[in-house]
Amino acid sequence: MQTNMNILKGKIREHGLTQGDVAERIGMDSSTFSRKVSAAGLKFTVGEMHAIAAVLSLTNDECRDIFLPENSQ
């Protein structure tokens, strides 16, 4: 499942956070989070997606736009 990292990066900035801040809040090493954001080959687990959504107060629509590939919508 490839994620839409541009939207995710924007949401992180909107909340005044860094990727490292989000990583810390979801209990992930910041380098792992950065690799998952940067590399299409590394994907977030469902649990990680839920944790990110909670930290960023994402709506269901935002979660769908960020985490679901276009061809599955």
Automatic annotation (TrEMBL):
Domain of life: Bacteria
SUPFAM superfamilies referenced in this protein's UniProt entry, alphabetically: lambda repressor-like DNA-binding domains
GO MF annotation terms: DNA binding
The name this protein goes by in its record: Helix-turn-helix domain-containing protein
Native source species: Candidatus Gemmiger excrementipullorum
Record lineage: Bacteria, Bacillati, Bacillota, Clostridia, Eubacteriales
